[in-house]
Amino acid sequence: MSQTQNRVDAAGLAALKGRRIALFGAGNMGGAMLRGWLAAGFRGSDILVVDPNPSNDTLSELADAGGRHVQSPEPGDVAEFVILAVKPQILDSILPMVGMMTGTSSTIISVAAGKALATFTGGFDGCAVVRAMPNLPALIGRGLTGAYANDTVNLHQKLAADVLLSVLGKVVWLDREAEIDALTAISGSGPAYLFFLAECLKEAGTDLGLSSELAGVLARQTIIGAAAMLDQSSEEPQDLRKKVTSPGGTTQAALDVLMRQNGMRELLSQAVAAAHARSLALAASA
């Protein structure tokens, strides 16, 4: 596995200058990618958005940057990078249009959840395809995207895909496509686990007599601050935990409950296993 930070440097921009990018779908994730590209300095004139009904804000941003929008591609609209940010249930229906836009040197990047590389067979045999799985914080540029490239993707195409995806946050490259299901269970579903922890901390605060508003602030900011420390520190999570934990103190009393047999560690392991199993089942039925 390799990884990159969400920084588009001058070399990355220069490598993609003048190379056509086609974005299918400008909804939540596609829109986040588009805004990220433009904010990073990508030329709007290199970007074509294919979407039957984009928001007015998206159309305005694209037009201001000199980009182009179409409801369906026109003859000659071949792109070097074709990004598929559409719902998985409509991916199959747009593949003929995707085929119109790909040439021998094109790279397809699919962020359609649950759609394996095997989706791109038939007319796409021999195409360079990257399968990517971003999580929810990608919408604000702080996400994690797991990516896997098929054997046709060369080094230059992989580096370019990395640049395009890095506007969403950190990018990790997986060694096997099957690892996407495990990544989904950890980072794809993971934000919900943290949001639920915030819910539980807030409820615990109100049980102690705090107002709902104050308990919410305490829970939210505690998680935000702890996450920032994880982000900025090179120390392992257990080392940071030990810094908060004094022997015989209040944190130790709480951890004795959370870390006992059949406690939080086992529950979280069971939850992640359930998410992984569901990801496998959904992939099998896709």
UniProtKB/TrEMBL annotation:
The keyword Disulfide bond does not apply. Its main location: cytoplasm. Signal peptide: none annotated. The keyword Transmembrane helix does not apply. One of its GO terms (biological process) is L-proline biosynthetic process. One of its GO terms (cellular component) is cytoplasm. Keywords: Amino-acid biosynthesis, Cytoplasm, NADP, Oxidoreductase, Proline biosynthesis. Pathway: Amino-acid biosynthesis; L-proline biosynthesis; L-proline from L-glutamate 5-semialdehyde: step 1/1. It is found in: Cytoplasm. GO terms for molecular function: pyrroline-5-carboxylate reductase activity. It comes from the Bacteria. Residues 20-114 form the Pyrroline-5-carboxylate reductase catalytic N-terminal domain. It catalyses: L-proline + NADP(+) = (S)-1-pyrroline-5-carboxylate + NADPH + 2 H(+); L-proline + NAD(+) = (S)-1-pyrroline-5-carboxylate + NADH + 2 H(+). Residues 177-280 form the Pyrroline-5-carboxylate reductase dimerisation domain. NADP(+) binds at A85, V86, K87, P88. Its EC number is 1.5.1.2. InterPro entries: 6-PGluconate_DH-like_C_sf, NAD(P)-bd_dom_sf, P5C_Rdtase_cat_N, P5CR_dimer, Pyrroline-COOH_reductase. Belongs to the pyrroline-5-carboxylate reductase family. Catalyzes the reduction of 1-pyrroline-5-carboxylate (PCA) to L-proline. This is Pyrroline-5-carboxylate reductase.
